[in-house]
Batch of 3 targets.
Target 1
Amino acid sequence: MKFRIKILPFLILISLVSVFGYQIYSGFNFYKEQEARLEQDVMIAMKNADFREIYWRIDLIRLEAAVNRKSSSSEIKIDIPRLEDAIDIQNYFLKDLHQSVRQLKKPDFKVYCNLLQTELIDKGIMLETFTELIDIRDGRTIESVPSDISGVERSHYKQYTFPFDVDGIYAYRLNIKQPELFILKKMSGILTASFCLVILVVLSYVYLYKTILRQKTLDEIKSDFVNNMTHELKTPVSVAYAANDALLNYGMMNEPEKRVQYLQIMKQQLSHLTSLIEQILTMSVEERKNLKLNSEKINLSGLFESLKEQYLLSATKNVRIEVDVVPFDLTIESDLIHFRNVIGNLIENSIKYSGENVSIDLSAKISDGKISISVKDNGIGIPSHALSRIFDRFYRVSTGNIHDVKGYGLGLYYVKTIVGKMGGKITVKSTEGKGTEFIITYEN
């Protein structure tokens, strides 16, 4: 189990890196696909614009021929394919067509630029551009639109070149500013989805890892609980058995004082055993959400005095318990057995987690319609980091140099559960080395 827990963070890290790497790989491939698609669309737009410019010149030549009333032998007869079929025209056909029409009328670069912008807009490419007519042999710009491009930072533009003449001398060059931003914008949906997926996977893995760690902690706590519980249940049985054995086998029945002493020991141990069993059973009942409480009026002065006598009688330390209830006849509505166990549990903890001289103040008062009950001691206190966990089931605070404190972490969980069932609230104040105060409040 420990080996699996140690290797788990490594496996989770590998999984996260793999998922993240796959998302990056997929995103990069998709970006390349979109980049190729954009280049294809741009080249088709340049080819279509070139074809339309040729068609425009042919129309212009026919118009001029009709106006000048030339003979029919001088008319140019060229079959022009439909515009939508332009993308299927082979490059060599366009070049030949250029050559034929160029003999009659030179290309109009500005018309081409206007037609190209129309084609780009039709394909949804609305970016900042400028177009050049260049000499391929030396890269010289013959003409450009706009005409003044001296201040343009060419490093921000990507170039798309379309040669158009049969001799391979001239070409149109379209410059598009930062097309990668256009591609990323088109990818924004899938990028957002991928990012959300990665975040979701990371959160899922983190939650899974924390859950496993909690399960590991719970498993260790349960293991400690079983060990402690076994010892706790075994001790009173062993003591009671030894006292009973002494009475039966060593003639203690003829010594009244010894007999009473041993019987009292048996009674205390059996009482302790009953208390332990009752807490365990109460936890089981509480988990099934059907714990039943028998509410009755409880006189706090009488209850506190009774508990004071009980713990002073059984104490193995020098214990002082002060009772202060204002008013003296203050009562609350609660289940007597469980409420007695709650206060008794707090007193017992005060004795356990104190030195040899124990001072406990039991007090109760009513203020602003609320009954406040306090159990305050001069014990070793509770570390600040443990205050938020002391009411957790099975949790036990480390006692430092005090090694003889027994228990299995159900006492305060039981206290909080019962107080909550009774409609109350319990809080704790503590300073290490100075003591602890538990405060229970009820609405009157």
Target 2
Amino acid sequence: GEESREERYANIPELKELRRDLRNKSTIAEAKLWSALKGKQIQGRKFRRQHSIGRYVVDFYCPSEKLAIELDGSVHDNPARREYDAERQRSLESRGIRVLGFRNRAVVQTLEMVVETIVGNFLKP
């Protein structure tokens, strides 16, 4: 079925250590957004943190919405990184996953607006 195909690409064992390292080295913005998303606080949606899909690891992922959330600081501003990000976005979208991106600064300064934007991107009421 569709679910089992998606599960085959999710959290592949080879990336387990990378995902753990990323969780342990989270930025202030990631920690702040995670505190708002975890525990099904937002309309009962389950979010995962540092979730891998294929060969990519996304900051946050909501399986029921097929919605990935990426936070980026200035690290994403160089051309090579932008190309990598575009390739990752194409790969995720080819699996029916929508990607929302936010700046770290936006999460830290306007968390409520970020959460409202996430809710506004839910497909189901």
Target 3
Amino acid sequence: MRNLQELPKFRDGLSYIYVEHGRIEQEDKAVAWWSPEGIVAIPAAALGVLFLGPGTTITHAAVKALSECGCSICWVGEDYTRFYAAGMGETRSSIGVLRQAESLTDPSRHLQIVRRLYMMRFREPLPPDLGLAQIRGLEGVRVRDAYARASRETGVPWHGRNYDRSSWESSDPINRALSAGTSCLYGVCHAAIVSAGYSPALGFIHTGKQLSFVYDVADLYKVETVVPAAFEATAVSDKGVEGRTRQFLRDRMKAARVLERAVDDLHRLFEAPGEQDQYVVDGSKPGDLWEPEGAVPGGVAYGCDSAGKGFAELARGVDEVDE
């Protein structure tokens, strides 16, 4: 039976909304987007991620309302060329990140997670005797075939993944579209990871960056969502490919059920089918304390009663030793 406290808001919500050059304020018990064109209500309770682009301001009350709805907030550059910061997800438990850290630091379990991540990208099972280098080779072939197939189907010329992060406009339209779409997918995966209680920094295939695990998870869905959306958007016109890619990607993500799959895939990756989160009901509850024999409840005055007699006796013992 499914754990009903397994963060259903994320899987049942919309994917993302991107806004820029305006302000977000609380509107009744929801939030609204104020811009020169008018006021637009934002469905915070049904939203996975809200991307804030340049020229955006947001009030404290709006941030609180979005947080209570389980909507992640990401501060990004224009057309997602930069990722600056993100808010905290719903879960207050560290069960997931502890399991993730244990898997990362154990070499055999680390390799097992890496293989599992690659296997989740392929429709057919991988032979168990393949080495890591061979698996990476197959993955490279899979991605190249996806680009070539999308190019044939849309008629968009493809000369390889080539872009300069320091000069956005110097890239050709299809590479700009792919970069914009990939950034959107990163934001959604970041929100899923944080919402499910894992760390975006503890990557297994990718490593060394604060978003390493985001890159690992995003690669599970990139070929089926970002690649076709970017090529379809570029096929329409070379102009405005970034915004059009975002629109097409939303449809692709809905069709691929990315929001429905993301949290389940994370739990499946670590073989953690939604443990009970003791902090769902009371997020301010003190955390446990570490002991060699196992964790003990926090927020307890160990070794003394309510009158503090234990500390008084300890103090007297110290005085006697000094004498």
